[in-house]
Design brief:
heterodimer; A: mainly beta; seven-stranded mixed beta sheet; four-stranded antiparallel beta sheet; 55% strand; globular; B: mainly beta
Chain lengths: 117, 113
């Protein structure tokens, strides 16, 4: 079974600053996907970024980028030029790639990110 | 493209009753997954359906069941409701083509009294 650990229950930064959210995972699988999801107060889960384990290049989506360290089983999310709208719960998630298609996502407990004006 | 829709958005039920939740995936997505979110347990995977077949299942009791129709719409049923079943139930549809990105609906908030 996989586990995902987010060690920072809450973080607070000033608008326009850069912030990094940590995530580590434990798995014996070699083929998998990693995701970051954002859940604002509306509770709508929004996909932020995705990383395939076989890709060495770190994924980037506009102001969001990841630092994927496969050997260390680490998958951190960096948010540059943070904005008030980035205030949300952020969940790190793991998905095993099985022959039967998409397996379920295993989520961490989340990090509550607060962007201060 | 319309996003994932879930109905109803809010539901209040009494212990012992049963409930059915509905999910319509993004057009063209054939895989639908269900998750339960509670303050204590966080987000937990219930099951996944593809082409009307349950392909993957999480660690939940048999009171939790689901099905998928030929148009990819899915329903989730919980029988003999318990207080601990109070949660936000999220449905997600998965992209085709191997990217495995899951897009979530707004959820159904179930309260069991």
């Amino acid at each position: 079974a996989q586990t995902v650990t987010q060690s920072q229950p809450e973080m607070s930064v000033q608008e326009a600053e850069t912030v990094t959210l940590s995530c580590t995972y434990d798995t014996s699988e070699s083929d998998y996907y990693l995701f970051w999801y954002k859940q604002p107060p509306s509770r709508q889960m929004i996909l932020v970024i995705r990383q395939e384990a076989y890709k060495q290049q770190n994924a980037t989506e506009n102001r969001f980028s990841v630092n994927f360290q496969k050997a260390a089983k680490s998958f951190s999310l960096k948010i540059s030029d943070s904005q008030l709208g980035d205030t949300a719960m952020y969940f790190c998630a793991f998905m095993k790639h099985s022959g039967g298609g998409a397996d379920g996502l295993t989520f961490g407990k989340g990090t509550h990110l607060i962007i201060q004006p | 493209k319309a996003g994932v829709t879930q109905t109803p958005r809010y539901l209040i039920k009494t212990r012992g009753q049963q409930v059915t939740l509905s999910c319509s995936p993004i057009s063209g997505h054939r895989s639908v997954s269900w998750y339960q979110q509670t303050p204590g347990q966080g987000l937990q995977f219930l099951f996944e359906y593809f082409s009307e077949t349950q392909r993957n299942k999480g660690n939940f009791p048999g009171r939790f069941s689901g099905r998928q129709f030929s148009n990819s719409r899915s329903e989730m049923n919980v029988s003999t409701l318990e207080l601990g079943d109070s949660a936000l139930y999220l449905c997600a549809s998965t992209t085709s083509g191997g990217s495995y990105e899951q897009y979530f609906g707004p959820g159904t908030r179930l309260t069991v009294t």
